[in-house]
Amino acid sequence: MQKRDFTLFLLISALLGITQSIDTSFFNNFLNDSFHLTVSQRTLLEIPREFPGFAVVFVSTLLLFLGDIRIAVVANALAAFGMFGMGYLAGDFNTMVIWLLLYSMGQHLYMPISNSIVMSLSDEANMGKKLGQINGANTLIFLVANLSFALIFKKVQVNYQLIFLIGAITFILAGILLMRMNPHKPTKTKGYKLIFKKEYSLFYVLNILYGARKQIFLTFAPWVLIKIFNQGVSTFAMLGFIIAGLSIFFKPFVGYLIDKYGERFVLASEAIILIFVCIGYGVSKAFFEGIGKGELAIIFIFACYVVDQMLMASTMARATYLRRIAVEPSDISPSLAMGTTLDHALAMFIPWIGGMIWNLWGYEFVFFAGAFIAVLNLIVASRIRIARPTVPTEETV
């Protein structure tokens, strides 16, 4: 039964690669083409877009009686209705924001639950490997989708309604497959008590810093390409294709590193690389123009974008770290949700602060701030201390 469920979840994760491709390749250009947002307006939009991430711990706590699998079904249903609404029912900007909230709640509700499901289908010593396999399947389809979109919309005008309809249908298909999995036993709770334990304090801090780091790149990295370097949908689709192609191998490799060397090694390495990526974003344009090679700036920015997106794979290490230090197994799902909420508590306001920095001093200083956050992340990651499990000699599914 566990092997069958893992195979089903592998397929579900692969399907959701299509929706992730739509989100990363089209969402920012959808906002730009449909509503012509300024940098300030775009950054303020992150508050309602990320608010569901902040609220997810409260919503998931209310839904704990359903169990992880059924919560994931609810999450995909919400995302489907939200994406459909943005495409077909959003007559103006304010209405679009309402549908965006629904879509975002589905996305954020699914994030911690998906990691919990994978780890429940894994043994202690191969959690990284299983998470890597799931992420690898997701990335493979993400790659195919990005390549398809890049080729199609290089010649054909983008139809955002059709794109969002495809995404909504894919979310529904994923929900149907989830219903075929063996439902996990719901967490028994006394009332609706939120879990916040001092034993998990380092996990909470790691999530807060990740939220700040993530939001800088989710909001400002694409906006630099759009506003500073005038890049369109086909560029994002092609970059997504490159990222996905590399990540098919990179994500399972990160899983291997987690199992082999531990979460501290992976998270500290991510922080070190990210410091250089942030500095690269900040100085590349001025540097290459200063030496008379301005055309190389965009290529270097593309490289920074690709490396940063690949580093997102390290989020697996935060999930496995919690699993290894969990006081009780029933703490895992609600604590992952708490981590997501803390991640977004700061992330909601980072775009607003970053937007002010952009307008006052330029986009470069947004990424210098990102480098400072990466330094803090390195310091915190270096404090991780956990015993390493023995890797089994035979594969366990």
UniProtKB/TrEMBL annotation:
Coiled-coil regions, chain positions: none
InterPro entries listed in its UniProt record: MFS, MFS_trans_sf
A Gene Ontology term for the protein's cellular component: plasma membrane
Pfam families per the UniProt record, alphabetical: MFS_1 (PF07690)
Entry keyword Transmembrane helix: yes
GO molecular function, one term: transmembrane transporter activity
Name of the protein in its database record: Major Facilitator Superfamily transporter
The organism's taxonomic lineage, starting at the top: Bacteria, Bacillati, Bacillota, Clostridia, Eubacteriales
